[in-house]
Amino acid sequence: MSIFTPTNQIRLTNIAIVRMKKAGKRFEIACYKNKVISWRNKVEKDIDEVLQTHTIFTNVSKGQVAKKEDLQKAFSTEDSTEICLKILAKGELQVSEKERHQQLESMFRDIATIVADKCINPETKRPYTVGIIERAMKDVHYAVKPTRNAKQQALEVIKKLKETDNFQIARAQMRLRIGIPSKEAKKIKDRLAPLMSKVESEEFDDELELVCLVDPGVYKDVEELVRSGTKGKGRVEVLSLKDVEEGDERIE
């Protein structure tokens, strides 16, 4: 599709339109196809790789540019880049039914891939295949939300699958080595206890050294607790991002 905009003499091709209705007006931005989803999934970081132009339109197809007073009223600013970012984040991507279906299918698989990468079967400690996760998502009737990124939705899926009775799933644990100076050792260890899933080894010499498993969601809390509790003298080392059984076997 090629759209000619006489207002600024720009010929827009390979176009994807993102639309938002606000303050009783319609606003549209012209983006490159396939880049909107990449931006929302935080894969694409460069706004200029997403936007064909920073101009805000009322109708991209007809080249009708939005009036400054309408932009000010709707967005409380006339800064075109700031407005584009708002429309990109919450606007509706205008695509054909076929394209929408393909995008939803692609995002569904992206979400399943993230879940499979982050999780294991807690009984066998082995990862699931993407196909198994996709089937489980269908079983709980998970509906993809096109305006939210895949990582956010993957966390929703994990929570939803944990609530089911017939599917065992857990976040793969991180293995950490924690060093705490002897003076603060007991106090910090007691405060760390609720955050550790399992203590694999514990040695005490000039300092207390723990090797433990933690949920990835509490890693920052562990790091902050050790840093603040030891005034920067403690250490937290990541030994492995995922504690899984050795071998490449995945649960089918």
Précis, in short:
By secondary structure, this protein is an alpha+beta fold.
Describe the structure.
- The chain has helices at residues 35-40, 68-75, 80-90, 97-118, 130-139, 150-162, 185-192, 219-229, and strands spanning 2-5, 10-13, 15-22, 25-32, 57-59, 64-65, 92-94, 119-121, 126-127, 170-171, 174-181, 196-204, 207-214, 235-240.
- It is α+β, with helices and mostly antiparallel strands and 252 residues long.
- The strands form 5 sheets. A 4-stranded antiparallel beta sheet has the order 12-13-11-14.
- A hairpin with a 4-residue loop joins strand 5 and strand 6 (64-65).
Q: What tags apply to this protein structure?
A:
single chain, 252 residues, alpha+beta, 3-stranded antiparallel beta sheet, 35% helix
> Looking at the chains present, what oligomeric state does this protein adopt?
single chain
State Rg: 25 Å
Task: Return the string of H and E elements.
Answer: EEEEHEEHHEHEEHHEEHEEHE
* Strand composition percent: 25-35%
Number of helical segments with 4 or more residues: 8
The number of E-state strands comes to 14
- Helical proportion, percent range: 25-40%
* Overall body shape: elongated
Structural class: alpha+beta
Write down the overall mean pLDDT: 87
Contiguous low-pLDDT stretches (5 residues minimum) are 4-9, 246-252
Please list the strands of the largest sheet in the order they lie side by side. Answer: 12-13-11-14
Ends distance: 43 Å
Largest sheet: 4 strands, antiparallel
